Amino acid sequence: MDLATFGVQLLNAIQYGMVLFLVASGLTLVFGILGVINLAHGTFYMLGAYMAYGIAAATGSFWLALIGGMAIAFVAGLALENVFIRRLYGRDHLAQVLLSFGLILVLDDIRQVVFGKDVHSVAPPAFLSGSIQLTDNMSYPVYRLALCGFCLAIAAAIFLVVQRTKVGMVIRAGAENREMTRALGIGFDQINRYVFATGIALAALGGILVSPISTVFPGMGDGMLILSFVVIVVGGIGSIAGAAIGALLIGLTDTFGKVFFPNISSVLIYVLMAGVLLWRPNGILGRREA
């Protein structure tokens, strides 16, 4: 492998890892902070891609699709938390799994009624549709580079909110010891609602951003859900920084695994997960249980 090819694969790995982080950070917020296993998280990734297609087709603007898709997902998250998810706090995981699986079926039927079963594509913004020439016979899409930069900006914003704001302090306290935080008089009703809606919006954002570089098709969120769980297990449940580390490790393992070990590339990420859990059973940045 020459240097140019290595550079392209490294960029692909970072871009893939950043998208994984967006989706997995939403899942780790909901799972780690609220204690809710949301199997419908991957469905919102798929719906984000379909909303990008639908809004872009209707308006001709990818930016309206980006803003509109996130807004719709956020409002849907608020509604779902208010009607369904709040009833699951403190209940066993079986009830959470059953309810979220039911949401998968309902949301998928809604997707089929609105968008059908066809496979679609979404055009990137015009000024990001070109390529950068790396060598005489190798180029790299501008949109993929912009995607990396945008995901890094979103990641920085998430870290800033969690680490430097009062809301972030409450979220971190609740993740560390929820009962003690309640005993101090801090209410979680509003925070729970907005944390869940933010997690849903991040999943949809991942689907929207990926839609110009991937086909939009039914079931595209299933694989992303599994990978998101792998990311938060590797990084540590409830840790945003751990999700970032886990996503980059998965991105590097998957991308270079397909280059060097194509026959077993799909297994390597689970080998990585098993190795990390043998080393640190709670994940790389996971909390140790007393």
Structure description:
With 290 residues, the protein is mainly alpha-helical. The chain has a domain at 3-122 and 138-219. It contains eleven helices and two strands; from the N terminus they run ααααββααααααα. It has a two-stranded antiparallel sheet. Strand 1 (131-135) and strand 2 form a beta hairpin. The chain starts with a helix and ends in an 11-residue tail after the last helix.
What does the oligomeric state look like here?
single chain
- First-last Cα distance: 47 Å
Strand order of the largest sheet: 1-2
Largest sheet: 2 strands, antiparallel
Strand and helix order: HHHHEEHHHHHHH
Q: Name the overall outline.
A: globular
What structural category arises from helix and sheet content? mainly alpha
Mean pLDDT: 88
Number of helices: 11
The count of β-strands is 2
The percentage helix is over 70%
Rg over C-alpha atoms, rounded to the nearest angstrom:
19 Å
Strand content: under 5%
Poorly predicted regions:
none
Tell me the layout of helices and strands:
Blueprint: H1 3-34, H2 41-59, H3 62-83, H4 93-115, E1 131-135, E2 138-141, H5 142-164, H6 166-176, H7 178-183, H8 189-210, H9 220-235, H10 240-260, H11 265-279
Helix pairs in contact: 1-5, 1-8, 1-9, 1-10, 2-3, 2-4, 2-8, 2-9, 3-8, 5-6, 9-10, 9-11, 10-11
